[in-house]
Write a structure and sequence with these properties.
The protein is α/β, with parallel strands linked by helices. It contains 24 helices and 20 strands. α4 packs across α8, α9 packs across α10 and α13 runs antiparallel to α14.
Length: 681
């Protein structure tokens, strides 16, 4: 369950924007909600004519460019040292491609995720030294490589760092450290991806009077994929990169991208930031997660169509294998949660396993975070050593939380929403304890949110209303796809599709009837029934088929109309605080402590239903909001202790079975109830 938050609308300001700029009402309203209200902001956003700032605004850019130009002129061997994800791969391909056209003596290096890990390492530096490399230019990494760059210096190898990650302390002793997040960097725009910084380096190499438009023609396809893949905010310069890049990918003369588009099954379709994010990026990432990332760079650089298609097919196969590995780990975590439900009670979830593929643990963390609504770190153990990857909820800086435990870590880095770490396996439990102590010190960790842009009367939905939304694209971080709230909708029909993989739902409100798609949900997993009144968080788009245009409505979240999500989530947290042994306020105890009638209500429902096979949270709705979710969980714990029911709850599912009982039991004798009553003031 997510906390539904509806944006505040200033109707007068939205009306002003509508009238002043001659915009459709829904477009003006969404611009106002997103804080785009001034003329230059509106024009910049809608026309996408943002000026790409001079690269020399970034600290050390001139020093770095001068060193690279010197290496080109003298024929020194340059190595572009990249990373294995989509941002690192596209950064490598972009800078290598440019240097090659500039007649540089250049090679590239992508470390193995499995054997070398992220960033520079001394073994790789030794290999490059043996090849005669005199200058290393990092892309999408390097800001934390203090020791490694000292080692390179000792071998007579210079380094130019181009990175976009947060510095973690002392800056490396490189010829140039180009990172907008340096405390002494005065550049105005700091939200570039690694490939964005690499592009700025290319601009710097071209000089003060470089032709930015021509460079975008050449490289915006790579810029687009890397920027979308790194989930940086799609505002200002990033918005230009992605918008130009989507057109470039659609009409690409880069044979590798064409092959990737074809094997991904989106050839002939309109290229959007969505299918870049969900089809192209995962395939580029997949080979780095379970294979050798150099293949992805080769794909983006090759001019041989046959080779490109071979590599693209391999990436497609790797992506399929990645999904299978990911699913196996998720099933293992599900079993762990069923046997050890206390895993779910922490503010920050830290889950570890032996031999989990480190290439997919970040994706698994993202999935668990979405299921359970909490910052999540997944750790894989390899004997005495362990590596982890985490994902956070909006408003909780995961990198700050990890930095607070840095004394337990051998390596760490990342962003507020995503971070990576390494540590000794023996320190995992202590790390879990410490990061949760840090989280508990914060006033309030925000709940995972479902941010609704605006509520809409379903009778207003038509092609003419939805068409203007296209002006807001491309969508991504910082500019999400508009999420529209349809409230108090009565479910009138449920139709399974694609062998029960997806659902087509029909809803009514007054005289309006709308059809909504709910993807990746089976009829058995859908906890609602015809007649239920529900609220929908949906996206709106235009479908074109056989020359006909219609509105596509896709459900991203569904909740009962009567449910107060913030109150619900607070009750869930009250229960977790109880299970963690924290001191409870009286209001928390009142929310959790059940009466005999409360026990009877839930038990009778379960007896009549023959058990329950939906997430426990949905019982709040089934019991018509007579019990809080925290109280329901307390009752289930007590009834389990008294052998009245058995409860098996996984990450995203639950099974409650009612036991056969031949005699009455004293509900107040359950340890859970005794403990909770003992907390009363």
């Amino acid at each position: 369950m997510k906390n539904w938050i509806v944006s505040q609308i200033d109707k007068n300001e939205a009306k002003r924007i509508q009238n002043e700029y001659g915009l459709p009402p829904i477009l003006a309203m969404l611009l106002q909600i997103r804080g785009i209200t001034k003329r230059e902001e509106v024009e910049d956003f809608l026309q996408n004519d943002s000026v790409i700032a001079s690269p020399f605004e970034i600290k050390d850019m001139k020093k770095g460019a001068d060193r690279i130009l010197s290496a080109i002129d003298s024929g020194e061997l340059i190595c572009v040292y990249g990373d294995y994800d989509a941002d690192g791969v596209t950064s490598t391909a972009l800078l290598y491609s440019y240097l090659e056209t500039a007649c540089a003596n250049v090679i590239y290096y992508i470390p193995s995720r499995e054997t070398e890990g992220y960033g520079m390492n001394k073994g790789a530096i030794d290999k490059l030294a043996q090849k005669g490399v005199k200058l290393i230019v990092t892309v999408d990494n390097g800001i934390a490589a203090v020791d490694e760059i000292d080692y390179a210096n000792s071998l007579g190898i210079d380094t130019v760092i181009t990175d976009h990650h947060q510095p973690t302390g002392k800056l490396p002793n490189a010829v140039a450290v180009i990172d907008m997040h340096r405390s002494d960097c005065q550049s105005k725009y700091k939200m570039l991806s690694g490939v964005g910084v690499a592009f700025k380096m290319v601009m710097a190499l071209e000089g003060e009077n470089c032709d930015v438009s021509s460079l975008l023609d050449n490289y915006s396809d790579l810029l687009c994929i890397g920027t979308v893949g790194d989930i940086v905010e799609l505002k200002s310069e990033n918005r230009v990169f992605v918008k130009r890049g989507l057109v470039n990918i659609q009409e690409s003369d880069r044979v590798g991208i064409n092959a990737l588009v074809q094997t991904a099954g989106i050839a002939g379709k309109k290229i959007t930031s969505g299918n870049v994010s969900f089809t192209l990026v995962p395939r580029i990432n997949a080979v780095g997660r379970i294979g050798f990332s150099g293949k992805s760079v080769s794909l983006l650089l090759t001019e041989d169509e046959t080779e490109a298609m071979e590599i693209a097919k391999q990436l497609n196969d790797d992506n399929t294998e990645r999904k299978e590995i990911e699913q196996k780990i998720l099933l293992m975590i599900d079993d762990m949660v069923k046997s050890r439900p206390e895993i779910m009670y922490d503010r920050v979830l830290v889950i570890d396993g032996e031999g989990w593929h480190q290439g997919v643990i970040g994706i698994v963390a993202a999935r668990i975070k979405e299921y359970l609504g909490k910052p999540t770190i997944i750790i894989t153990r390899d004997g005495a050593e362990a590596k982890g990857s985490g994902r956070s909820v909006e408003g909780f800086s995961l990198c700050d939380a990890i930095f607070a435990c840095s004394d337990l870590l051998t390596h760490f880095g990342g962003h507020p929403m995503a971070a990576g770490l390494s540590l000794k396996s023996e320190n995992i439990e202590l790390f879990r304890k410490r990061i949760n102590e840090y989280a508990l010190q914060l006033e309030n960790i925000p709940f995972n949110a479902c941010n609704i842009d605006c509520k809409l009367n379903p009778s207003l939905i038509n092609v003419q209303l939805v068409e203007p939304l296209a002006y807001l694209a491309p969508y991504g971080a910082g500019n999400p796809t508009p999420l529209i709230g349809l409230y108090k909708m009565t479910l009138s029909q449920i139709t399974p599709l694609s062998q029960n993989k997806h659902l087509r739902l029909q809803f009514k409100r007054n005289d309006s009837i709308v059809t909504v798609m709910k993807f990746f949900t089976t009829q058995q997993e859908f906890p609602y029934q015809v007649g239920d009144m529900l609220d929908l968080a949906v996206t709106l788009d235009i479908n074109e088929y056989n020359g006909q245009r219609s509105v596509s409505i896709i459900a991203k979240d569904i909740k009962p109309s009567a449910l107060d999500t913030e109150k619900f989530l607070q009750s869930q947290r009250n229960y977790e605080d109880f299970k963690l042994g924290l001191k409870l306020r009286q209001s928390q105890i009142d929310d959790l402590l059940p009466s005999r009638d409360d026990f009877a209500l839930l038990y009778v429902f379960l007896r009549k239903a023959g058990g329950y096979a939906y997430p426990i949270e949905t019982l709040v709705h089934k019991l018509e909001y007579k019990l809080s979710v925290g109280k329901i969980r307390i009752i289930l714990d007590a009834m389990s202790e008294l052998s009245l029911v058995t409860v098996s709850e996984g990450v995203n599912s639950a099974q409650i079975r009612v036991s056969q009982v031949s005699q009455k039991v004293d509900l107040n004798s359950a340890d859970t109830v005794i403990k909770l009553r003992g907390m009363q003031q």
